[in-house]
Design goal:
Number of strands: 15
Strand order of the largest sheet: 1-2-6-7-10-13-14-15
Protein name: FAD:protein FMN transferase
Radius of gyration: 20 Å
Structural class: alpha+beta
InterPro entries: ApbE, ApbE-like_sf
Helix content: 25-40%
Cofactor: Mg(2+); Mn(2+)
CATH topology of the domain at 82-155: T-fold
Oligomer: single chain
Family: Belongs to the ApbE family.
Shape: globular
CATH architecture of the domain at 82-155: Orthogonal Bundle
GO molecular function, one term: metal ion binding
CATH superfamily of the domain at 82-155: ApbE-like superfamily
Length: about 325
């Protein structure tokens, strides 16, 4: 993450400039954009452009859309190949890279288990058996995927279902922020379902201040971050329940970790790392975060009848707070 504010960002600041706000729905959640308006493009045009960009991402990566590229790949026969669109190729390439660097804690190939358990487009199967989940587990595994980033070819090894729920929102946040830049909007805060990216500064020369998410009922000191050319993503179980699949078991994670937030200069990477660190938990996850220099905050449930939580932060995040 940048440790200094870009000089040209200060030059653009003017307290008289208004901040526009737009909001909508996409990717099964809500999005919101705040941007400094300089009259280069009207809010209606910005909203239309954002809608088109998000629709394109849904058409490629949504497990809720039967006609999406992801859904079509999941239905392919063993040995079939597909030439991926550029966005999809970027996401799968990043997903496989994080899978390797996290030693499999992040794994986008457990979509079949997620679907069986009701975390996809359909409710959980009433006749779900341990054998069904074992079969789904046996057919998953990021190492089974053969992907050529040069030709963007991805091969279906047979029975493997992709699930981008741990990375797609982060990609979409980055994509919308990049779109705003293409429209001449250099100062903005973009949020999609709790994942945020900030570009530039507010009109008063302040960064975009955001509070890291905390689970309901968690009595923790507020942790406010000034975002500038940076992103934050949070993985938690307090909105959708125990929906994160543990790649080592093919089953939902237990409820020890309430949330993990990651700060990074790239929202897609923040999103994926938040998922990976959630899977690893506060012990192994903190070791990996410190080894990789990841700024992360873990919120852990403590045993007992009354809800109690403990917060742990990585060395990189501690340095950011001290600075």
């Amino acid at each position: 993450m940048p440790d200094k504010v870009a000089p040209d960002a200060f030059g653009r600041c003017d307290p008289k400039l208004p901040v526009e706000m737009l909001a909508g729905q996409a990717l099964g959640t809500f999005w919101q954009v705040r941007f400094v308006s300089r009259g280069k493009v009207g809010p209606d045009d910005v909203r239309t452009a954002i809608g088109r960009r998000l629709d394109a991402i849904v058409a490629e990566m949504s497990q809720w859309e039967p006609g999406s590229v992801l859904s079509r790949f999941n239905r392919m026969e063993a040995g079939e190949e597909i030439v991926l669109p550029t966005d999809f190729a970027k996401v799968i390439g990043t997903a496989l890279d994080i899978a390797g660097r996290s030693e499999g804690a992040f794994d986008p190939t457990h979509g079949r288990a997620a679907a069986l358990l009701g975390f996809g487009a359909e409710p959980a199967r009433a006749d779900l058996s341990p054998t069904d989940l074992k079969d789904a587990f046996d057919q998953a595994g990021w190492q089974r995927l053969a992907f050529d980033p040069q030709t963007r070819r991805l091969c279906q090894p047979g029975g493997l279902w992709l699930d981008f729920s741990g990375i797609a929102k982060g990609f979409a946040v980055d994509a919308v922020a990049d779109l705003l830049g293409e429209l001449g909007i250099e100062d903005a805060l973009v949020e999609i379902g709790g994942e945020l990216v900030a570009r530039g500064l507010r009109p008063d020369a302040q960064p975009w201040w955001v509070d890291l998410e905390s689970p309901p009922g968690a009595v923790l000191a507020p942790l406010r971050i000034g975002l500038h050319q940076a992103s934050v993503a949070t993985s938690g179980d307090y909105v959708r329940g125990l929906h994160t699949i543990d790649p080592s078991t093919g089953r939902p994670l237990p409820s020890r970790i309430a949330s993990v937030s990651v700060l990074h200069d790239n929202a897609m990477l923040a999103d994926a790392w938040a998922t990976a660190l959630t899977v690893l938990g506060p012990d192994r996850g903190l070791v990996l975060a410190d080894r990789k220099g990841i700024a992360a905050r873990f919120v852990e449930r403590l045993p007992g009848q009354d809800p109690a939580f403990a917060e742990t932060i990585s060395a990189a995040l501690a340095r950011m707070i001290e600075d």
